[in-house]
Structures are given as C-alpha cells and as structure tokens.
Amino acid sequence: MKKSLLGIMSLVLIPSLLAGCSGGKSANPADDGGVQTIRILSSDDFAGFREKAVEEFNAKNPDIKVVLDHVAYDQLHDKELASFNASGEAAYDIVDVDEIWTSEYANAGFILPVTDRYTDEMKQGILPASLQIASLGEEIYGVPMFNDVVFFYYNEELLKKAGFDHPPVTWDEFTSMSQALQEKGITPGSASAWGWSANEGLVAYFAEFLGSFGGKFMDETGKPVFNDEKGVQALTFMADSMKNGVIDKASINYNDRQVLDAFKNGKTAFVAGWSFYWGELNGSDSKVKGKVKVGMVPAAEGAPHTAATGSMYLAITPQSEHEDAAWKFIEYLGSKEVQKQQSLDAGSLPIWKDLYSDEDLNKNFAALKDMEKQLEQVISRPSLDAYNEFSKNMQIALQSVLTGQKDAKTALDELVATTEELQANGN
Amino acid sequence: MIKKLRPFGYLLPSFLVILSVTLLPLLYAIFISFINLTKNVHKLDNPKLWDYVGFENFAKVLSDSSFWQAVGRTMYFTVTSVGLEFALGMAFALILNEKFAGRGFVRGFMLIPWALPTIVNAVLWKWLYDPDHGTITVLLATLGITDGHFNILGSSFSAMNAIIIADVWKNTAFVTLILLAAMQSLPAEAYEAGKIDGASAFRRFFSITLPLLSPAILVALIMRTMEAFKVFDIIYIMTGGGPAGGTQVLSFLTYQTSMMFGKFSYGSSLAFVMSIFILIFAFIYIKILYKKAE
C-alpha cells in the first residue's frame, strides 16, 4: 500500500517537473488575445511617476500591456547584465540605461540602435546634450528620460539663521559656512553628508570635485589625467573635509540615496544629489518643503562650477519580441506632454529645448531656472567599455585616501596606471 | 525486473531536481571556465566561436594580486569567526547542558539570532555601528574607550572585525545547538567512572567530553568553515566590500568579476579555486578529527 502510494507520487511529480523545465515559452501569457506584454526594468528613482505613466499608457493602448519592474539604482546594472542572458519572464523588452553604460551595452549588443525610429521633430527638439548620452558613434540607442546632474541643494532657512544670505560660492566658503552652521548649533552635526561609500555615487561625487577644482578625467586623446595637481587638490579637499568634520565622517558609509534623509529632516544644510531629490524634498512627508533651493556647485578659485552628469535613457533589448510596441511606450514617456508632467510631479529636467521656456512649467517648478543654469557647467564620467571595473578600482582608490591609508597623489597615480592597463587590454 | 527498477523510479524525481538545479549549472560553470566567455551573449550559440583557453583562466587567477588579497581577508574572516563561534558555542553548550531553572527558556531563546535572516542581521548591526546614532558607537564614546564617535565601519581593519562580531553573534547559536545535542547523548557512565577515579572537571572535559564529541565538532566546524569561507550577504549589506576594498572577500570578488564586470569565465575559475580551498579545509578536518576519534 505504502509503496504504491510512493509510486503514484513520483508519477505525479515527474511530469510536473518536466513541465516546469520546459515551461519558458508556452507558459508566457503575454500574447493571449492579441495583447502584447512589454516588460521594463527601471531604477527606483522615478518609479513613482513611471508607475502612473504606465497606467495611463495601458489605458490608452488596450492592445499593449506594460509591466514595470524597478530596483534600487545600485542593483540595476548587475540585474540587467544577468537579464541579457536570460529568457522568458527574466528577460526585459526595455531597460533603463545610465549614460556610463552606453559603451558597454552598445558594443556588446545588449541594446538596439533606434536611430531610424527617431522623427525629425525629436532630432531637432531634444537637447543635443541629452541625445549625446544615448549615442555611440553614429547611432542613437534610446530616448533620454531626463537631464540629470548632481545638483547642489541648500536649506535657505538654516543658512539665514546662521546669517548667510547666499549659498557658498567657493569651496573655502563652503568650509567656513559649514563650520559656522555647526558651531552655532544650527545643524546638530556636520552641515553636510555625502554618499562616499563604495558605490557608483562616489565616482560621481569625485567628478564633481575634480571638475570644480579645474581638473578632468581624460585629455583629448583619451589618456587619463585625473592624477594631475588639480585632481590631487580635489581629492585632498574631500579627505580633509571629512577628517576635520566639515563633512560628516559617516559619509563613507552612505550612498548617494541615503544622504537625502538627513537633509530632508533638516539635520544638514547642504546636500549634493540628483534631480529626483527635488520631488522628494518637496513631498508631503518632507520637513524642509519649500525651504530648499538649488545653488551652483561651489568651486575653487578660477575653476568652473561643474556638476557631474548622470542622465538615463530607456533602450530596447534584442530579446524583445515586440520592438514596435516597446518603442511606442518609450516615445510616449519621452513625449513633450509626459516630460512636462514629469517635471511638474517629480522635479526632473525635461529633454525638450522649448519646455525650458514653457510658461506653466516656469511658474510651477521653482527650481527650473536655477537647475538650467547649472546644466551649462557639467563634467561627465569617462565612457569606457570596462567602465564598471574602472569605477570599482576608483572607488577603492578614493576610499583609501578618504580613510587615510594613502595620500591622494599615490592613490591617483596607481589608479591612472590600472586605468591605462584596462584601456590597453582592449577593455 | 520491475522490482529491481522500482527504487530508481523513486529516486528519479529528486535526481531530476538535483540535475536541473545543481549538476547542470555546475557542469556549465566548469565548461565556461575553460573558454573565454565575457559579456558577449551570442558566443555560446556557435561552437566554432568557443574560444578554448585551457587552464589560462586559472593561471590568471593564481597570478592576480587582488585574488590573493581576497584570500587573505577570507582566511582572516574564516579563522577568526569560526574560532570565536566554536569557543563561545562550546561554552554555551556546556552551560546549557547543566540543570538550572529556566533552562528550557534559555535554550529556546538562544536560537533567535540564528533564526534571523542574514540580511536582517546585517542591517541590524549596521545600525548598531552607525557613526552618529549607533548604540555601540555611542556606548564606546560614553565609556571613554574611543575619543568621540568612532566610525567603526569607516576603516578597513575595524570594519572587518565589526563584521566578524556580527557574524559570530548570529552563528554561535548554530555551534551551540549541534554540540548541545551531542552532549545530551553522551554516556553518563563514563562521567561517573571519571568521578570515582577522582578526575577533575577539567580532566573530565578534556578526556571524556571532547573525544566523545569529535564527530559533532567535526560537523559543526566543517559546516561553519564552509559557510564562513563563502561569506557574502553580510558584507554586501554592511560595507559593499569597502572601505577601500578592506572587506573584499573571495565570494564578493567572484560576484563582482562575473556580475558587475561581466567576465563570466574568469568568475567561474575564481569560484572553482574557491571550492578547492573549501575542499582542502574539509579534508584537513576529517583527517585530524577522525584520527583523534580512533
């Protein structure tokens, strides 16, 4: 009796297992009834807005069903890299691509060029700088979703309390203001925290300092030059500021998302962050709603006030079986109407030139003018096939200086050497 | 005939499970560590494009300085955490093996850290170490042990040891559990005989308890060593391999190589070298402990 029971169980189990193994295609409910399912993998940053947009799009297009998955930015690249080798439910039609990944993704064929799909209106109406981030060589690989840099936000109320009527213009002024804010007890600890843990944000922050001290990553020939005098000054300033408490010592534990919380609760007076901060800072749960302004990134004497760029775009993968439907959705998110709505709701900067002079937008998006000014002075992280390896090396080098294990010159010299090696190995 | 085949029929379902989730991926990993597979996904479709490199990937692993640094860190983590877990686990097991009021309650309570998912444990300890508000940070400063708030996760050396403490806190319970279970089945006669012969408590521990516990110790040590050598999640959450790469252990390096940099072949080779290390550990343990038991 018992034996036969076991036999039945195994008989039931085997087919279900086999079905599980071969399930991939037939189990895909996507194409039932002519509805095409489009799956998107997106970063968390604008997910709130995108969810709403997806709902609207789905309502307007009964024959397409868009499904949005989103993960924290720090996990996005690795999850995408894994999905490019996957099939079925684990693969995506559309992925969210950071400008620094273009070279890697496009050269490996993970994303499809969409140059032919671009209309003349798009080619002429979208900011050239925005198109640039989604381009490699002659091809365009997607539609940028916003124009983003690491902005310098300040809490006007706290600065006024300390007797300052303007945000810091130079890094020296940033230091003296931070000290004053802390000494007067206006901020409970250091006046700012930065996201300098081992994450991509650290490289973006370094870019910000590098540029605003007058340095750059590569020269015209693509040779790394960030170990020059300017680069060393920038990194030394970062390390010293953390050491003497001008910048929160805990910065080495935070990423570029976690520093938002302290600022949002009025504990710090400055924060450098992406444009989605604006929406968060003016949300209903923010304690600093209406008190925050966007200033120019401080700079060393005579150097430009550069902010690090970090725009993202949506691209179609070759795994997609519904490229046209996928493009329709991307085009919809990139359209003027949705871009405008995104700026109003989430505080992003639109990709269309004429939206910057849009009356309605100027009236309802207080930071637009200030942000536009910052967009004129930017620095980009280098575009490399092996960008992630470069970035990891850089995070280790920067942190070894921030924790006092090495001096800036030694660490940057070593990093330039490994970067040249990476470039030489055909990436 | 059918009678003979029947047992295999019963085994078939579990064999299929093991085949699909363990054996095939394992063989695939072995295979790709001998070719040069990077991010280019289309390569596997066409056998003509397979780029056989023999043991080149393994040679590269062994000559890679970041690999040996990661080995050093992993060894430090493994030896320190397993050592502490074993010492504390043994002490707790001995205490919990004595009769006292509320023993059942304490035995159950002790298991709570072990029942926590590692991720929860990691986030919890990260908060305790928080440089501004962390309980431990503030306590150390208040007691005057550190000069002001010391950022425990802010330097390579202290971060590594802080992670070890978090790991020990969680996994000591596991060692305790195994040792305690074994202690309860030890023969009371041996202890009685020892007492009659006038052996002290220490002597009884070293001459009776330890040798008889050997098999249980073997199990606990092997399992903990393997787990500790593969440590990943707690580091991923608490430091992300930082600061300055100071907590970059082997499995983290492997993850980074494969999943971040897309060097799948090199990553597989790393994983295999790592498995060989673990096998060596297991071999040494078995040699030492079985010899003792004989």
UniProtKB/TrEMBL annotation, chain A:
UniProt entry keywords in alphabetical sequence: Signal, Transport
User: Any keyword tRNA processing?
Assistant: no
- InterPro entries in UniProt: Bact_solute-bd_prot1, SBP
Q: Name one Pfam family in it.
A: SBP_bac_1
Tell me yes or no: is Transmembrane helix among this UniProt entry's keywords: no
Signal peptide: which range, if any? 1-19
In which domain of life is the source organism classified?
Answer: Bacteria
Annotated family: Belongs to the bacterial solute-binding protein 1 family.
PANTHER family with a match to the protein in the record: ABC TRANSPORTER PERIPLASMIC-BINDING PROTEIN YCJN-RELATED, ARABINOSE-BINDING PROTEIN-RELATED
What is the protein name for this chain?
Answer: Extracellular solute-binding protein
UniProtKB/TrEMBL annotation, chain B:
Q: Which PROSITE patterns match?
A: ABC_TM1 (PS50928)
InterPro entries named in the record:
MetI-like, MetI-like_sf
Note the CDD domains from the entry.
TM_PBP2
The annotated topology with respect to the bilayer is: Multi-pass membrane protein
Which residue ranges does UniProt annotate as crossing the membrane?
12-35, 75-96, 108-128, 134-153, 160-182, 202-222, 234-255, 267-290
The segment(s) forming the ABC transmembrane type-1 domain are: 71-285
Q: Which domain of life is it from?
A: Bacteria
One biological process term from GO is: transmembrane transport
Cellular compartments annotated: Cell membrane
Give me the Gene Ontology terms describing cellular component.
Answer: plasma membrane
Q: Which family does it belong to?
A: Belongs to the binding-protein-dependent transport system permease family.
Q: Using the UniProt record, give the first listed, main subcellular location.
A: membrane
| Protein's UniProt keywords contain Membrane | yes
Sorted keywords for this record are: Cell membrane, Membrane, Transmembrane, Transmembrane helix, Transport
Q: What is this protein called?
A: Sugar ABC transporter permease
